[in-house]
Amino acid sequence: GKLVYGVSSGDKDSLFRLDPESGILKTIGHLDYEKEKEYSLNITVFDLGHPQKSSTSYLTVVIMDNNDNAPIFQQPMASLKINENTPNGTAIFKSIATDLDSSENAQIAYSLMTDTDVFIVHPTTGVLYINSPPDREKMDKYEIRIRASDHGINKNTIETLHAESVVLIHIEDVNDNSPRFLKNFLTVNVKEDMPVGCVIAIIEATDEDLGVKGEVIYSTTSNQSFAVDHLSGVMRLTKSLDYEGK
User: Fold this and answer.
1) Cα(164)–Cα(35) distance, rounded to whole angstroms?
2) Residue at 42 is within a domain
3) Beta bridge partners of 72
4) Which regions in the chain score pLDDT beneath 70?
5) H/E element holding 57?
6) Which partner from 33, 41, 104, 130 sits 20 to 30 angstroms from 20, CA to CA?
7) Distance CA 5, CA 55 (A)
């Protein structure tokens, strides 16, 4: 006799259709592995006799994961400060990304998208390390782009899915530069009749460090004939000169 097929229960999201005549099961909605990983369908078949007879069977539909979710960073944007000359191998930041997919589709590899030899990122942990001590006098700020890529292949593309985050790194100054004179040797001709207090030279020096670390203080040896202003570097005559005596 003729048989009629139907889904009695288990299709809680109304995603399946069972052809009543052929018994062929089809999907009529979008299956989402992250929402529901399997369905247990109660399949019932009826005859058209009198009295009507039926039989029931359970069908488990297992949903396979597709790589349809890109990684997501917990911090898409981060900012931090480090001292210049921070030693090689110092961990300064950890990027954390997650993926809603499963298995290899959720395995994440980290890489740097910024061309730099100062920083490196661990491909598995996402930890950002110092690779070469930064020098604030050369570069005082870095914008590092970190990419998180999954290991799966999306059915609609030949590429893995990925996301990117930005880490702004500000380099703090340390006192690592000595003052430098604009002229290491300076010769000045002074007449012996020049009055006390007269300016005879201006000493100039610079320091590439910042703030008080870059301020230069001048001083002289114990020559009592000359004195230098400790802030301006202006050198003055402090006592009368005697050409015949010195």
Assistant:
1) 25
2) yes
3) 98
4) 1, 154-158, 244-246
5) strand 54-62
6) 33
7) 10
